[in-house]
Amino acid sequence: MGICYLHYKEKRVASVRKTKQIINKMKTLECNIFDKKENVRSRLVLGVEKDDSPEISVIMPVYNHPDFFEKSLLSVINQVGDVNYEVIIVDNGHPSFQKKNEAIVRNNFKENIRYYVNEENIGGVGSENRGILLSKGKYITYCHDDDLLCEDALQTLLDFNHRLQTEGTAIFGNFDIIDENDEIHSRENEFDSFLLKNKEYYTVTINDFLFKNYTNGCGALYLRDNLIAIGGYSENFIPCPDYAMNAYYTIKYGSYAIKAKTLKYRMSQQSDTSKAYKYLVDGNRKIINQLLELKGFWGCVYRPFVDVHLKVTNYHLYTKWSDKKMSQPLFFFYRAINRVRLFVSLLSKSLRSSK
Question: What's the predicted TM-score (pTM) here?
Answer without folding.
Answer: 0.85
